[in-house]
From TrEMBL:
The keyword Cytoplasm does not apply. GO terms for molecular function: monoatomic cation transmembrane transporter activity. It comes from Caulobacter flavus. CDD domains: SLC13_permease. GO terms for cellular component: plasma membrane. It is found in: Membrane. The keyword Transmembrane helix applies. InterPro entries: Cit_transptr-like_dom (IPR004680), DASS-Related_Transporters (IPR051679), RCK_C (IPR006037), RCK_C_sf (IPR036721). This is SLC13 family permease. Its main location: membrane. The chain crosses the membrane at residues 28-45, 57-76, 96-118, 139-160, 172-194, 399-430, 442-460, 472-497, 503-521, 569-592. It holds the Pfam family CitMHS. It comes from the Bacteria. It is a multi-pass membrane protein.
Length: 594
């Protein structure tokens, strides 16, 4: 072993130990390792930041933006609307929701698909009395196996493809992963259809700040546009469309005010409705029923042409000028350049028009304004903004455009017209330029810690390969596996990746283990493709912990899970993958060198 190899192993080994220790954030460890590598001379300065321009980072970032745009479009909710009411028990919900999440993961990145499905799943669980703990983890596992089936479904596939590009001169194609990934997905869904019973029922889910804020019941004011048509036109129909989560407080028709209207009361174009409900339920009903917020169309003050319109929540402070006054009396729009979209008052149902409600200290307002104008307006009005979170109330949604752009990008990439990075980057730019996603939402979807982790770990992991360390490890492994059947060697490689992922993060695992798999295949005289596929499958299948993949972390709180619950459901599935996947890979990607 040379000094350069020893230092490379020491750097990567120390990085791995820091990952396992968990004392610091993954991204901080990665950039710290990068800094040490540069200062020590292990990583040349000219290549130190090459990871930030690497195709891997571009593809992952673009996939996240596209997932956010599809989620924002609401197309999945629309497509699922006829199906969800038929799912009454955990026995039907667990496999069906897991299967839908898996299929979505084949079209968008797996964490995006899970985030897309979770609100509908949680609402369905509440309405049917099924514990969320019985359905969320199967959905997470479904997203993981579904993501294995396409190049952009999960980060390990993207990174393995890039490793193949650098080593063999050609990346994996978009659907090269499909035969193995689709078969494993079917097997996993069949397992989850019965194994969900291993999960605890009745756990109390953790409540995060977003959920706590979303629990506020707001009153908002909407208008029925001319030419409006809905499936039915009665008050009860609107309530059913919102799953009884929104109440019609009053109907204002000309000078007539109809308080607490009967469910059979007809709604007519030109009516003004006062609706009460949680922010998400109100937004979904407004979009679904094609209603129009009364004040949302009024112009707001924009300091710059590039400003974006934002909607924020703010609480009225004890010294606020709003106390005892109305929005109409203060001329909020004319004086401050903001629109009042909703009001929440604890323990009291507001039944008047928004413009005439007399404000009290502690009221929570939903205000619309220009992004540069809002902070000053809030300060002048004596309102304190609540925790930063996405607030949607009646925003315009492009139902089909993001899905069409995503489908077009996948087709062009699959046909070889565009490289993966170029195709998905162009699609991400297009959804923003077309207005399907705002720039602020695009930035929020990027998952900076994950991108920084990947970008920093690329040059760090390269130190082992460039120093000859991967050849050294491959020589040791080939000696250890000497005389073993190639299929067993392939299984061992997959097991290494699967066991390392919970501690290293799947992206870091692939960056470290994939070059070793290539070296091992070369030493044994076998084809490198099966070993790269084995690393991708192993790194993409973290069913044992809540920390190895963002999908598992995403369901931890809402499902009320404990650390050991993941292994309870995931250990048998991991064993099934290890028993079945290597044989599938060897069938599709023969082990014999070409």
């Amino acid at each position: 072993m040379t000094l350069q190899q020893g230092l490379s192993f020491a750097l990567v080994g120390a990085t791995v130990l820091c990952f396992v220790w968990g004392r610091w954030r993954y991204d901080l460890i990665a950039v710290g390792a990068l800094a040490v590598g540069v200062v020590s001379g292990l990583i040349p300065l000219k290549s130190a930041f090459s990871g930030f321009s690497n195709d891997i980072v571009i593809i992952i970032a673009s996939a996240l933006v596209l997932s956010a745009a599809v989620s924002r479009s609401g197309i999945v909710d629309t497509l699922m609307a006829p199906l969800l009411p038929r799912l009454k028990t955990a026995r039907s919900q667990a496999p069906v929701l897991a299967a839908i999440t898996a299929v979505l993961s084949m079209a968008t990145k797996n964490v995006g698909a899970l985030a897309l499905m979770m609100p509908s799943a949680l609402r369905l669980a509440r309405n049917t009395g099924v514990p969320a703990s019985r359905i969320l983890m199967p959905m997470s596992f479904g997203s993981l196996v579904g993501g294995l089936a396409v190049l952009v479904g999960t980060s390990p596939n993207i990174i393995v493809s890039e490793v193949r590009q650098e080593a063999l001169g050609k990346p994996f194609a978009m659907f090269d992963f499909m035969p193995v990934g689709a078969a494993l997905t079917v097997m996993a869904i069949a397992y989850l259809a019965f194994a969900y019973r291993l999960l605890p029922a009745g756990r109390t889910a953790a409540v995060d700040i977003d959920a706590a804020l979303a629990a506020n019941a707001y009153v908002t004011e909407v208008e029925i546009p001319d030419g409006w048509s809905f499936e039915q036109d009665r008050v009860g129909d609107l309530k059913r469309a919102a799953d009884e989560a929104v109440a019609v407080v009053a109907i204002l028709r000309g000078r007539e005010r109809i308080a607490s209207p009967h469910v059979n009361r007809k709604i007519q174009p030109g009516d003004v409705l006062l609706l009460e409900g949680q922010q998400q339920a109100l937004n979904e009903l407004i979009v679904k029923a094609r209603l129009r917020l009364s004040d949302a169309s009024r112009p707001v003050v924009m300091d710059e042409p590039t400003d974006e319109v934002r909607v924020v929540e703010a609480v009225i402070g004890a010294e606020s000028d709003l106390i005892g006054k109305t929005a109409r009396g203060l001329a909020l729009n004319e004086t401050y350049g903001v629109n009042l979209l909703g009001v929440s008052r604890a323990g009291y149902r507001l039944a008047g028009r928004l413009a005439t409600i007399r404000m009290k200290a502690g009221d929570i307002l939903v205000l619309q304004g220009g992004e540069q104008q809002l902070p000053g307006a809030l300060q002048t009005l004596g309102c304190l903004p609540l925790a930063e979170r996405e607030v949607r109330l009646g925003g315009v949604r492009h139902a089909l455009l993001p899905a069409a752009i995503l489908a077009g990008a996948m087709i062009l990439v699959a046909l070889g017209v565009l490289p993966v990075a170029a195709g998905f980057f162009a699609a991400a730019v297009l959804v923003v330029a077309a207005g399907a996603l705002r720039m602020r939402e695009a930035y929020a979807s990027l998952e900076g810690p994950v991108l920084v982790l990947v970008a920093a770990m690329i040059p760090v992991s390269d130190t082992i390969q460039k120093s000859g360390g991967t050849d050294l490890i491959a020589a040791w492994l080939s000696g250890a596996f000497d005389g073993l059947p190639p299929l067993l060697t392939l299984t061992a490689m997959m097991a290494v990746a699967m066991l390392a992922t919970p501690f290293l993060n799947n992206a870091a695992t692939v960056l470290i283990v994939a070059p070793i798999g290539l070296g091992l295949a070369e030493r044994l005289g076998l084809s490198p493709d099966p070993f790269l596929m084995a690393v991708a499958v192993g790194a993409g299948c973290d069913f044992l912990t809540p920390v190895g993949h963002q999908c598992n972390t995403l369901v931890l709180g809402p499902g009320g899970y404990r650390f050991g619950d993941y292994a309870r459901l995931g250990a048998p599935l991991s064993l099934l993958i290890l028993l079945v996947a290597p044989a599938l890979i060897a069938l599709v990607w023969p082990l014999a060198a070409r």
